[in-house]
Amino acid sequence: MTPLAILDVIGIEPPSFPTLRRLPESMLPLSAAEVAILLKDTIEKDFGKAPDFEPESLRWRVEALREATDPAAHEVFDLCLARFVAADTFRDEVLAQLAFDVLFRFRFPEEYRERMTHLFDALLLSDDLQVAGMTKVRRLKGFWDGSLERILKKHPMARGEILAVGQEMRPRTHKDFLGWEVIHYSVLGAARKRMHPVIGFSLEPEGRLRARCTAHKTALRAFLDQIPRDELAGALRSRIRAWTPGWLVSCGADGTLAAAVSTGEVPIWAGPG
Predict the structure, then answer these.
(1) What is the pLDDT of residues 110-146, one digit of tens each?
(2) What is the pTM for the complete model shown?
(3) Between the CA atoms of 33, 39, 40 and 46, what dihedral angle is there, to the nearest 10 degrees?
């Protein structure tokens, strides 16, 4: 499970960060990375004050949930939750991902916007685990929105199908975006020492998982299309080639599992003819 998914399971709502004030003029000469680091550190320090994020509080919540879980499921519970929360780095990982999620949503003043946009777009291709899959999907959503009209004009007879797929790219709440993490990692893989394929399990029906996968891959294609070809063939080639598609599995309420859907075989939306 991802750090933010674990927070959701143990019942911690992400705190709201106070609105960032106007950035001081002294920050104008800084690079995009320096601006991001300063703001991220500020957000992390604020979130770190929340009692819910004290290590003992996190461990207590996990233990309480484990006690309420059927003993037959303890092995799976420990594999998915307990060992991660017990790690010394877990709190820092959570705070970093929450801070980046706030940062990606911040409306930068005009004089910062171009360089910060370039930085955030670059982070979409980064394996840095400080940026959550949920946060990357927030970014990809913009590329889907930007390409939707073009797809509709190219395939007017398939408008209903396109809009149905588009509905899957319209998350609103934190939980909505969090539900996209399983799609994101199942499509691209998860980075450790190298990229590993991910098998994602979801309570969503198979048809919806396929539609979400199509929307994600179409948005990703729209993002890659705006990058110069020489960059794709050069410095970015190894990163893209390292992506490792996995599988999505729909789980029934009774515990039954549907056949695994290979995300590598789900096409991007291109429409008929």
Answers:
(1) 999 999 999 999 898 887 768 999 899 989 988 888 8
(2) 0.86
(3) 170
